[in-house]
């Protein structure tokens, strides 16, 4: 009797171990599955210059083109995009609507608990655009906060929302918009007196708008939040369980950094050598 019970217990433990192993294998098979079928699906938020559809309807952007090169070298020839609101990208990745996030997403502590980041592909600060001549003298987030009624437009879910609040700007003077083009429209229509986003994104939107009534604040003072610089680092994001995929991706990204190929791609989208990530790693940034 005791022998029979012992055998049953041993079999049960083996079965549980086998199920656990299968679960681990399934979670780690994203790269192998993509290599087998020849394509992978990525989530993006239509945010220029990170990931967006151009006039021909083609998916491009710095994050997309970097990923395209790396994935091809990993044996995945085709990259398909799934347009998603920025605030829903992480949930979409977790729900397996797509396999990667290629949206230039900043590596942040709160996001590090939800997704697995590759090492950063760029680093940037913030930018501010206003009416030509900057009639309100807005040269920093603090200047907006100190003004009696200046309003600033910002994309929903963007890291700048938190920066604005922590700079003392009341919520009723923060104009939340769905995307970058809506931020331009808010500034042009007078709904907002300024708009903010990362430097390269701001430059690309102003170039596309080609509106002489708007200008970038060239002497903009970068905000310091909670005593720290807000310089951000953007990267591709994976699901937890795809560590092998992340490591393979990081290895190819490092080769691109060393060869200068990373900078070449970044420069196509308005970045400069100043926006290179240096020696920063996702691991260190998630702990920071």
Number of strands: 15
Q: Which outline best applies?
A: globular
Class inferred from helices and paired strands: alpha/beta
User: Largest beta sheet, briefly?
Assistant: 6 strands, mixed
CATH topology of the largest domain: D-Maltodextrin-Binding Protein, domain 2
Radius of gyration: 22 Å
Please give the CATH class of the largest domain: Alpha Beta
State which percent range the strand residues make up.
15-25%
Gap between N and C termini, in Å? 57 Å
**Average residue pLDDT:** 90
Which residues form runs of ≥5 with pLDDT under 50?
Answer: 14-28
In helices, the fraction of residues equals 40-55%
Number of helices: 12
* The CATH fourth-level homologous superfamily of the largest domain: Periplasmic binding protein-like II
CATH architecture of the largest domain: 3-Layer(aba) Sandwich
Compressed to H and E, one letter per element, the order equals: HHEEEHEHEHEEEHEHEHEHEEEEHHH
Total domains: 2
């Amino acid at each position: 009797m005791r022998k029979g019970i012992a055998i049953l217990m041993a079999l049960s433990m083996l079965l549980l171990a086998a199920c656990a192993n299968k679960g681990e294998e399934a979670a780690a098979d994203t790269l192998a599955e993509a290599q087998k079928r020849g394509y992978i699906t990525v989530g993006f938020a239509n945010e220029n210059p990170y990931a967006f559809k151009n006039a021909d309807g083609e998916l491009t952007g710095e994050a997309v083109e970097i990923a395209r090169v790396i994935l091809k070298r990993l044996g995945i020839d085709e990259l398909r995009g799934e347009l998603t609101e920025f605030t829903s990208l992480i949930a979409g990745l977790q729900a397996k609507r797509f396999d990667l996030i290629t949206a230039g997403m900043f590596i942040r502590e709160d996001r590090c608990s939800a997704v697995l980041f590759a090492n950063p592909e760029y680093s940037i600060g913030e930018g501010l655009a206003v009416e030509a001549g900057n009639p309100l003298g807005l040269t920093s987030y603090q200047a907006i906060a100190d003004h009696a009624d200046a309003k600033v437009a910002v994309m929903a879910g963007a890291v700048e929302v938190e920066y604005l609040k922590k700079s003392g700007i009341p919520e009723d003077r923060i104009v939340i918009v769905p995307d970058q083009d809506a931020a331009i429209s808010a500034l042009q229509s007078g709904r907002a007196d300024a708009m903010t986003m990362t430097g390269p994104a701001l430059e690309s939107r102003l170039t596309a708008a080609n509106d002489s009534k708007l200008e970038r604040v060239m002497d903009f003072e970068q905000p310091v939040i909670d005593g720290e610089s807000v310089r951000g680092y953007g990267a591709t994001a994976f699901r937890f369980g795809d560590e092998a995929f992340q490591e393979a991706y990081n290895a190819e990204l490092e080769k691109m950094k060393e060869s200068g190929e990373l900078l070449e791609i970044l420069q196509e989208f308005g970045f400069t050598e100043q926006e290179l990530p240096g020696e920063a790693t996702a691991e260190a940034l998630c702990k920071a």
